[in-house]
Amino acid sequence: MTGTFQEKVAVLQGVTYAYNSHPVLENVDLTVHAGDFAAVIGPNGGGKTTLLKLLLGLLKPQRGTVALFEAPPGKTAHRVGYVPQDAHMNRFFPLTVLEMTLMGRLGPGRLFRGYSARDVKAAEEALDRMEMLPYRRARLDELSGGQRQRVFIARALASEPDALFLDEPASGVDSAGQKDLYSHLKELNDRMTILVVTHDLLVLATYVKSVVCVNRSVIHHGAPEVTHDMLRLGYQCPVELLAHGHLPHRVLPLHGEKDRG
Amino acid sequence: MERKTVGEWLQLSFVQNALAACVLASLLCGIVGTYVVANRMAYLAGGVAHAAYGGVGLAFFFKIPPMVGILGFTWAAATIMGALSLRERHRSDTVISVLWAFGMAFGVLLVDLTPGYGADLMSYLFGSILTVSRPSLAAMGLLTLGVLLCTTLFHKELVAVSYDEHFARVRGLPVTAFYLTLIGTIALTVVVLVRVVGLILVIALLTIAPYIAEKHSRSLQGMMFRAVLYNIVFGMIGLGLSIALNVTSGAAIICVASVGYFVSLALGALKQKRRHEPPHV
Asked: How far apart are the first and last CA of chain B?
């Protein structure tokens, strides 16, 4: 919501990250400016989630520097609304939609205090924006995948963030739900920077402003069009891509053996 | 053995103590167990409880007060398990298994090596709620109060950390501190209860009732309330059976709780089936 287009939301410089000496990202540079709507794409295990976690300070790089809003992520991560992968959550956790959304109002200086009326109002507004307010008393496992994702986004919005980082928000969501989700994101992009990890660019291509290809290295494309480098880097699997222009065209790389994206 | 009426039984001080222990253990385990189940840490709790036997051995071998030995060893084992599972939550089961097995083996070895009176392993596995002492009751009461206080003070943070550790971290909450405190509390619960109800019963009280409660609750508080209630019901029925049939109290309570668990599973399946009979719109 703040800053000009010139403000740098996220900057990676020479970042290397390895899990048990198995490199996931190597010598990566990336700059995301305020106002961007960037899709982070790449094969599974290519480092998309790792990239997001590095930006949020959830992981520390072995080499290189990470800056979030031009400061170390530990100091600024609270300015980001984070939407983690749904799959890692306990589906049967006893929690209502409203209580879940209120988590977005938590912060380090707020220990010992209950939620205020203002917190509840902010959470309800966020739910309303995602059209989930009527469900505020529902239990999370009573919702569909798409509805649950909208609540996750509402929780992130409840913190009144300057940027939104989403990790595979469309997984487990049917295609109508996906379109719905992305049009919500497009609307939100008027007010905040958005970084979304996905592995289907098909739906996303019409919404995003830039594409970040992650596969151990990172290439950032200013416009969502398909280049040879993107394909070489991003995909070892058959995939459909919609590109620039009015006529969408499909690109199916031939060198893929894996059948899952 | 002459037969007594229920009223006569209730006048015996050891029965009163046992009932008090049962209620306190139900409260403590219902609250702590809710976090255990919601965090999917039942296996870790099992590891902590079993590793406690290493502390029993330690106390016997070095002739230190059992509580000190058990507390020290259990806490250390719990912290190692907690720290490692925090780093790799999905691959912590191996470390937990190792510490689980090691704790028990270490305890048995140390008891073997201690000259003289051998500790009765069974009494630590299943406890002896019918011989619970007043100081034990006091310790349980104190811990229950402490846990209640922490749960009330940090309720919303604990919910967030339990549900979604990463989001909580991004919000700037001290997730590691909360997590290790939670595991420390599990250790403390095990230590306080191991002499009373035995470590197997501790695991049962920590997991079975909260698990049944989870499905029907809309909040962690609701789940705690139900879990405590179920624990008390299981405990009372189990105790009654134990006295009436003259069988081991801990085992009786566990069997009652397990029956409760299977009944809830069956009821859940039945409900699911009925819901799906008319075409879903």
From this structure: 63
A122 contacts A158 by C-beta, under 8 angstroms: yes
| Mean of all residue pLDDT scores within chain B | 87
The residue whose two tokens read 């094969």 is A43
Query: Mind listing the pLDDT tens digit for each residue in B206-256?
Result: 999 999 999 889 999 999 999 999 999 999 999 999 888 988 888 899 999
Q: Collect all residues of chain A within an 8 Å Cβ-Cβ radius of residue B163.
A: 89-90, 93, 95, 100, 103
Question: What is the arithmetic mean of pLDDT over A135-145?
Answer: 90
Q: What is the side-by-side strand order in the sheet with A8-19?
A: A22-33, A8-19, A63-68
Alpha-carbon dihedral B10, B13, B18, B19, rounded to 10 degrees: 40
**Is residue B196 scored above 60 in pLDDT?**
yes
CB-CB neighbors (< 8 A) of B39 in chain A:
90
A43 contacts A236 by C-beta, under 8 angstroms: yes
How far is the alpha carbon of A108 from chain B, nearest alpha carbon, in Å? 5
Listed residue (A106, A211, A89, A96) closest to A156, CA to CA: A106
* Per-residue confidence band for A146, with pLDDT thresholds at 50, 70 and 90: confident
d(CA A221, CA A213): 8
Buried b (16+ CB within 10 A) or exposed e, A107-135: eeebeeeebeeebbebbbbbbebbebbeb
DSSP H/E element including A185: helix A175-189
DSSP of chain B: -----HHHHHHSHHHHHHHHHHHHHHHHHHHHHHHHHHTT-HHHHHHHHHHHHHHHHHHHHTT--HHHHHHHHHHHHHHHHHHHHHHSGGG-HHHHHHHHHHHHHHHHHHHHHS-SSPP-HHHHHH--GGG--HHHHHHHHHHHHHHHHHHHHTHHHHHHHHH-HHHHHHTT--HHHHHHHHHHHHHHHHHHHHTTT-HHHHHHHHHHHHHHHHTT-SSHHHHHHHHHHHHHHHHHHHHHHHHHHT--HHHHHHHHHHHHHHHHHHHHHHHHHHHHSSPP-
- Min mean pLDDT across A210-219, A220-229, B33-42, B61-70 is at A220-229
Residues of A with CB under 8 A from a CB of B: 53, 56-58, 77-78, 80, 82, 84, 89-90, 92-96, 99-100, 102-104, 106-108, 111-112, 114-115, 137, 139, 155, 159
